[in-house]
Design goal:
It is found in: Cell membrane. This protein is an all-alpha fold. Helices cover about 70% and strands about 0% of the residues. The chain has helices at about 15-20, 25-55, 60-70, 80-115, 135-155, 165-200. Helix 2 crosses helix 3 and helix 4 runs antiparallel to helix 5.
Length: about 200
């Protein structure tokens, strides 16, 4: 028969105050939820304009052209495959940033503020069952690499409108993001192996 878990002893006033200070992060996560709402609104505005442009709505068409136009490059005058691709990449970019926000909101709250008690919930994210500060940091780094990839692809599609230095600089920045994510993942792997070995001794 399992023994009941003893009640934790109450904290002294100063440690209790310091521990309670974690709730100061709650307004930050609520703010990120509002930012998520802004991204959802932006996504549907862009999607509505894309559908309207495909159906021949002139105002939606002009908005799409303005959204994909590159400074110094000629503005498109018709809805072609490249224009549609740029708009869709913009929508994917919004979705990936939204995913990043979800990871920060849910994972950050679970790791740094309070448990969500989602064990056994059918909609519990797979990654949340083993989330900690290191795992969250690795997943955020990979999400940033994905977002950078979308931006780099959009730049390469309009490569003729950019200076060569801009293309090289964006490529170098993306490679730095990629190497940073790999370094974080490798460091996390070493830390996990070391932790498991120390527990086995």
């Amino acid at each position: 028969m399992t023994q009941p878990t003893p009640n934790p002893r109450p904290l002294r006033p100063l440690p209790a105050l310091i521990f309670m200070s974690r709730w100061l992060q709650l307004p930050l996560y609520l703010g990120l939820i509002l930012a998520q709402c802004v991204y959802v609104f932006h996504f549907w505005v862009e999607l509505k304009d894309l559908i309207g442009a495909a159906l021949g709505n002139e105002a939606a068409l002009q908005h799409i052209f303005a959204a994909v136009a590159v400074p110094g490059a000629p503005v498109p005058n018709k809805l072609n495959e490249t224009t549609i691709m740029l708009v869709v990449l913009g929508l994917i970019d919004v979705v990936m940033i939204s995913n990043l926000l979800i990871m920060v909101i849910i994972g950050g709250y679970e790791t740094f503020v309070s448990r969500l008690d989602l064990d056994g919930h059918p909609d519990q994210p797979e990654w949340l069952s083993h989330v900690n500060a290191s795992v969250l940091k690795t997943k955020l780094a990979m999400a940033i690499v994905g977002i950078s990839s979308i931006h780099l692809l959009k730049t390469f599609i309009n490569a003729s409108a950019y200076d060569e230095k801009v293309l090289v600089a964006q490529t170098v920045i993306h490679v730095v993001f990629l190497l940073s994510a790999m370094a974080i993942a490798y460091t996390d792997r070493i830390t996990s192996v070391t932790h498991q070995e120390s527990k086995s001794h």
